Amino acid sequence: MTEAAPSPAFEVRWLGAGDEALAARALREVLDDEPRGIDSGWLADARVHFVVGLLEGQPVGVAYGHTVPLPDGRIEMLLYSLDVGEAYRRLGIGRALVDAFLARTRALGFDEMWVLTEPDNEAGNATYRSVGPPSSRETSVMYTWGVTGDGVPESGA
Ligand SMILES: CC(C)(COP(=O)(O)OP(=O)(O)OC[C@H]1O[C@@H](n2cnc3c(N)ncnc32)[C@H](O)[C@@H]1OP(=O)(O)O)[C@@H](O)C(=O)NCCC(=O)NCCS
Fold first, then answer.
1. How far apart, in whole angstroms, are the C-alpha atoms of residue 56 and residue 63?
2. Are 119 and 112 in contact (CB under 8 A)?
3. Does the domain at residues 10-130 carry the CATH identifier 3.40.350.10?
4. Ligand 1 centroid vs 133 CA: distance in angstroms?
């Protein structure tokens, strides 16, 4: 284990309704993503969990995920996306964001948290391993269907 830890100027901040401008900035600057859905209530949705890592006020890491309610009454947290800006990697920021997600999952009384990453994503796997041993780890195949507005699946490989 390395001892990488974010500097004291680093802050983990959960965002919600009213934080749209900072959330949009974080998505643009960290993921180079155009956050088209931000102004349509996405951040205010109680099932959305969005956390940023700020270094001297500047967004350098982003993680977001979703509440997944199951028919047996259990509730899971899906950590859907985790990214740290290239210039800020290997400083403990990714681990801090995953830790924050685990803490929120516990605080909300959910049953478990899960995340997907590719087997060859060295940084992703190392980061998820670094927060402590998972209760399970498996390799799955993911199928995705792009679906057009009229519900007709797009053709493709
Ligand atoms: C994955 C990612 C978020 C890690 O962020 P980070 O801030 O660099 O990670 P940390 O500094 O907190 O490192 C956490 C642990 O992973 C290890 N690690 C991080 N990057 C690594 C790499 N490229 N190779 C090997 N180990 C790595 C660190 O050494 C640390 O281990 P330790 O706790 O034993 O010291 C970042 O690399 C990233 O944004 N990658 C692109 C997006 C991505 O792959 N997201 C995750 C999968 S969906």
1. 18
2. no
3. no
4. 16
Question: Is the Cα dihedral 40, 43, 47, 48 positive or negative?
Answer: positive
pTM of the model: 0.92
What's the pLDDT tens digit per position in 8-49? 799 999 999 999 999 999 999 999 999 988 889 999 999 999
Q: Where are the domains of the chain?
A: 10-130
Q: How far apart are CA 116 and CA 107, in angstroms?
A: 22
Q: What is the pLDDT of residues 78-102, one digit of tens each?
A: 999 999 999 999 999 999 999 999 9
User: Ligand 1: distance of its center to the CA of 80 in Å?
Assistant: 16
Q: Is 92 in the pocket of ligand 1 (CB under 6 A)?
A: yes
